[in-house]
Amino acid sequence: MAKEFPLISTEVKPVSTKFRKLSGPVPNSATIKEIEKLREAEPLSMRGQPPVIWDRAEGVNVYDAYGNMWLDFSSGVLITNAGHGHKSIVEAITKQASRPLLTTYCFPNEARVKLTQKLISLAPQGLNKVFVLSTGAETTECALKLMRTYGRKTGTDDKSIIVSFENSFHGRTLGAQQMGSLGGGEAWIKNLDPEIVQVPFPDGFRCQDTSFELFERTLGRLGVEPDNVAGVISETYQGAGPNFMPKQYAKDLRKWCDKYGALLCFDEIQAGFGRCGTMWGFELYDVLPDLFCIGKGVSSSLPISAVIGAERVMNLYGPNEMTSTHSGNPICCAAALASIEVIEKEKLVENSAKVGLVLKEHLQLIKGEFSERIGFAPAAGLVAGLLMVKKGGKDPDYELAWNVGNLCFRKGLLMFAPVGVGGGCVKIAPPLCISEEAVKEGCEVIREAVKESL
Ligand SMILES: Cc1ncc(COP(=O)(O)O)c(C=O)c1O
What we know:
Elements: E1 10-11, E2 15-16, E3 21-22, E4 25-26, H1 29-41, E5 56-58, E6 61-63, E7 69-72, H2 75-78, H3 87-97, H4 110-122, E8 129-133, H5 136-154, E9 161-165, H6 174-179, E10 196-199, H7 213-221, E11 229-235, E12 237-238, E13 243-244, H8 247-260, E14 263-267, E15 291-294, E16 305-309, H9 311-314, H10 330-345, H11 348-369, E17 374-376, E18 379-380, E19 383-388, H12 398-409, E20 413-414, E21 425-428, H13 436-453
Helix pairs in contact: 3-10, 4-10, 11-13, 12-13
Residues 77, 135-137, 140, 169-171, 235, 239, 267, 269-270, 295 line the site of pyridoxal-5'-phosphate.
């Protein structure tokens, strides 16, 4: 079981820089009291993050109510691409709410009209239908349903196999959890769907064979007939690393899907809206999917997600056959539209690419300094990871990753608890408006924390 951050009041070494301010005991007794109320009311699973009660958050900073300010390397969980609490997003939300218009179910609303137009204008040509939902898992469930429906409609009844990748994450609902096998999260499902199969992800670190033959060989070993594959789904990059597939692998995968009439779906829930230094993460591969899922950074704030895809796939269900209560909520749509406009106006995709190079360079230096304990430091744009390993090998070192995160927290740098295979990944994903100066300061904090943790 993952560790809880202890609710013990301890003094921190005072910090005061442009990006971080910390003093006194952290957490203080008032914070502890409030978190204890949560711990009483909520399941254990909600206890995994550092003990700060977010009071407000702006730009690249998160504040508590006691004068402490953290530099944020989490973006919540890769949500706030446009920066925390952006004025334009706050205004758009307030304006929409105060019309007043708070919800419309699937009745049309103007904000949904504008958002769908905007998303289609940003999506690659041919991917011209948008189904707006609320959470990431809803979109991957929907993609699973669409891929299967399409397979069986265009092929035989057997064309219903879904191929996904080992150590992927697509959400925590039934179908999503079977497609994503990270950490054995699907273990609770007694009757696993035998037509959802996994192949190794060619990350080049734990899976050294990055050739596309491995995909075909694995399907052969699993007894999967290629003609029976309805679709292949992959996170554009695996959040667990972040792990990227080689460009050639992605191209071969696209060709394979075309050859066997299988759909290709990228789960862009983390990768979209500039995170990787490109508007869409799959631009890194020069490959177009048939459908893709977005969420998180689409609004930099309120819960909204979508499946975007080709008409032949998206139109498989008739009126009122594929809906969700909060689909296209006007306030969420207004927030998403405002966030996309901020990303465009403030050139945050470009900033992600530019500042991402600085992040990458500094993480490589840290990896070089602690090469026995940091096995891999993948990065693209403003998403990166430090994969902590047991001395000299590749086994994940959760304790070390957790200690680094905890020490960073106590130095004024905020990251969510470690993720990935064996919990060994210290994941770095600041808001895309971050400056080079802030990235350098945050990396220096990480370097100190690794040093002190060894
Ligand atoms: C790649 C990916 N897919 C799907 C999800 C699930 O999204 P949600 O938590 O909004 O259901 C996540 C969430 O972390 C994700 O990172």
